[in-house]
Each structure stands twice: as structure tokens, then as C-alpha cells.
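Dear U.,

For the methods section draft, I wanted the exact inputs and outputs in one place so we can describe them consistently. I've listed the two proteins in the order they'll appear in the manuscript figures. Please don't edit the C-alpha cell lines directly; just add comments below if something needs changing.

First protein:
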Amino acid sequence: MQLRDMPSGAVQLFLDTEGFDATGMAVVYDERIFAFAALTASVLVYNLVETIKEADIEKLSFATQLATEFW
């Protein structure tokens, strides 16, 4: 996590969260972390070390559905 004060008086918060398939965690844990990050962010960067696959899109879709339940 990193905070940065902007000249306008706003504050930027940079938050790096775990990705999907965290070792030793329940599946729902990953989706909830992602949903929280997506709901609280004005910009979201989805970073992978490999090419995006259909399974990744399905995970994003599920996280989006979960996020709409919180909204």
C-alpha cells in the first residue's frame, strides 16, 4: 500500500492485492478481495504473468457478479 498526496489536495492510494487462486485460501476469499478492490477503485489494473485465458475471463465475470451483490 502506498499513499501519495496530490497538488489538488486529493490523496491517491495504491493497493496491491493477491491474485486469484491464493495458496491455502478458500476460493470465495479471492473473489471477495477482488470485488472489494474493484468497488473501491477508480482505476483497476488486472495484471497477469501470462496471456489472459478464458478461465481468467470467467473469474473476472464471477467477481463482477459478486461485486454487484455488494453494490
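Second protein (the one for the lower panel):
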Amino acid sequence: MSLHDALATLGVNKVLDERAARAAFRQRARQLHPDRQTGDAAAFHELSLALERVLKALEGGCMDVDEATEGVFGEVRLGKQLSLHQSVWRGPCERCGDTLEISQADLDEGYNVVECASCSLAYDVVEADQNTSKEGS
């Protein structure tokens, strides 16, 4: 689950600290808890996962007010930090060094955020310049 999705599941667009994250969770949990007549076990499980995801991001120190609002913590440029290999753009995460990956098809559909699978840092993917060439495979 991406950080952006986790925040949406909690029903907020920013979280300043653990206390605020838990308060957002409790508010939604009252509605979704499976023990309630109107509860939804699957939605409650997703809510629990969202809380874990946000707490992990807070613990890692990668969220501040502006970052949490946008859900994006940096920028990577096609052709600079990311290289195209068989229709997939790849490059290292600046924080942990793990590989970031986003497919050309996702970019073509307008999806322009890539999240590191290891440290969960999210990056906005942008063109390096107007002359950036794409591999033809």
C-alpha cells in the first residue's frame, strides 16, 4: 500500500505525528469495526494496514507537513536518475539505494509517482528535459 493510499484510507491528506494518525484511525475504526452492525471486516483490515503504513513512514522520519500533504518526497528524472530497460524505468533510491521501478506504460497512463519498496520513500517522476529519448523496445 502506498503512503498516498494509506492516507486516503485513513481519510486524511496529511498526518503530523503518531497521535494524529491514531486519532484518524480511531475515528474510521468506529464506523468499520466488524463487531458493529454496519461493520466491514475487509475495510477494517485495510484501515489497519493503512495505519501501519503511515506509522512506518513517521517512524522513518520521512514525513513532514508538506511531504505528507503531497505524498511525494523527492523527484527523479527520466534519463538522469532513471534509465529505461525493456520498457521499465529503473534507478536507485536516494535514501536506501534499492531499485526504483516504473513502467513506461504507467507513465503513458499518467501515473508519475514511484515508491521505493524497501524504505517507502515516494518520488515524483519527471522528464529530464524535452530532449529525453526513450528506448524503442
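Candidate sentences for the figure legend, describing the second protein: Confidence is low (pLDDT under 50) at residues 64-70, 130-137. The two ends are 30 Å apart (CA to CA).

Thanks,
Y.
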